[in-house]
Design a protein that fits this description.
This protein is mainly alpha-helical. It contains 3 helices and no strands. The chain is rod-shaped. Residues 85-97 have low confidence and may be disordered.
Length: 97
Amino acid sequence: MNDNIKIIELNNKLTRYERELKEMKCNKKDIENSFNELIHYNIHNRRNILTYLMNINSEIKQLSHKIYKLYNHRTNIINKHNKIVPSFMTSYASLLM
């Protein structure tokens, strides 16, 4: 598969995952901001809400890791074609001129 197509597919995945991550973080923040209201709930409902919050945290962690891996993969593909010349080689080349 062509590397440009791989990068486009990775960018599409990253966009989708980042959108999901943003929604999850927003949902998490809404729950955390409503902690003061938990005193009005019974213990069973509090437990359910906190379990749900823990699940969101776990999903955020997993999705963040996926995003990190995709960025690394994309960077590796890009760097494969953009070889960096070591600094000692550039200084040696300037001496030859």
